[in-house]
Amino acid sequence: VQLVESGGGLVQAGGSLRLSCAASGRTFSSYDMAWFRQAPGKEREFVAAIRWNGGRTSYAESAKGRFTISRDNAQSTVYLQMNNLNPEDTAVYYCASDRRPYYTGNMRALRSDYDYWGQGTQVTVSS
Fold it and tell me: What's the pLDDT at 47?
């Protein structure tokens, strides 16, 4: 399984970015997907997740109202639209694939719930 993120970069505070994560190697549409991020010196933290069929999403408090996760199962791609960015959003952003196919329980936010990870894409927000 391969996950490849793109779309990171340098943006001014208040700006927007759209991250993409292209998946290959297993049936993308069967698995919940998530975005995590890791700032320098900090633990990797949950940002957002989306159900395998796109029918449910969840967000960290820091992302609610500003970020939107979506997916295109035909393109095996998950997206993270980030608006109104601030310097605290500066981090490496990772996409991840859930361990279990066709999961129907509560949306999951633990790193251990996800078994495949991308290499990350850097997002830097200047003040």
Answer: 98
